[in-house]
């Protein structure tokens, strides 16, 4: 009786063990191999390349200076009576800047006038004597040698009068030099004289900067000397960031500075107006003479196996092709490529070191990444 009651339980246990064993066998069974050519394509991040204009430019800080800045001085010796201008004054051509004490100059002029009057009287007397001698010689009352002496005396008197007239002109010019006048429109940048000071001829008295022509002065390194000569230049002002002025290289120092090893360059500003004041800070931008067409690609897209830089190009069917490229320059994040790629071609941006030409890839556009 007890034997019969245990049979159903044993059957249930046996059945459960069989089912568990069958499940374990199914889980441990390996997956069936995939069919050839049905492997999943590897996704790659790509971007389309396009040519753009590359105009290399460099910016330098300089100052606005006058093209002509000269030291004016008196042409005669004397004592300074008045100084009529101060530093920073704007003056016009012909405006008096300073004057000398004119007492001695007036005395010299009066002396020259007296000498001319004496020479005029001597000439009149000599010519009268010559006429009388000629009359007497014609009548036979005097010798020919006497007539010759009178002619020589008359010529000497004429020379003395001419010398006196030239001396009077010089004295009058010297008197006019007692006033120092501006020779052009400009700004007074320095004064080296004070009233009561005695100055010599040619001594610097007033420094005048002409405002008719202005220029920007900068120092450039020797690597950009050629670009400064052949390229274009524009000038901006710190006081007016919107201002952009044309500039033309006027002068380039023939030798480099011994301390900085830079060359001093002067750029004329033909369009300078009232906004451009002397001494202002200016920024001079130098650009290349011709624009170069380049493609800008990420540095991570470059692949180099020792034969030069290359990139992986992807066609419409997802095939990879290794394309050698020519790199013109390297920047912080990009490489500038000039040859090796076509307009609109797609290249892989990331993970190029893990790719192979036999791989099939799936394109992921960089714009949707």
Automatic annotation (TrEMBL):
Keywords noted in UniProt: Coiled coil, Transport
Gene Ontology cellular component terms for the protein in this record: efflux pump complex
Coiled coil residues, start to end: 100-174
Entry-linked InterPro entries: Beta-barrel_RND_2, MdtA-like_BSH, MdtA-like_C, RND_pump_MFP
Domain Multidrug resistance protein MdtA-like barrel-sandwich hybrid residue range list: 72-205
Keyword Magnesium among record annotations: no
Residue stretches making up the CusB-like beta-barrel domain: 217-289
Limits of the Multidrug resistance protein MdtA-like C-terminal permuted SH3 domain: 297-353
Single Gene Ontology MF annotation: efflux transmembrane transporter activity
Top-level taxon in the UniProt lineage: Bacteria
Protein's cellular compartments: Cell envelope
Similarity remark: Belongs to the membrane fusion protein (MFP) (TC 8.A.1) family.
Record-linked NCBIfam families: RND_mfp
Protein name: Efflux transporter, RND family, MFP subunit
Organism, as annotated: Methylobacterium nodulans (strain LMG 21967 / CNCM I-2342 / ORS 2060)
Lineage: Bacteria, Pseudomonadati, Pseudomonadota, Alphaproteobacteria, Hyphomicrobiales
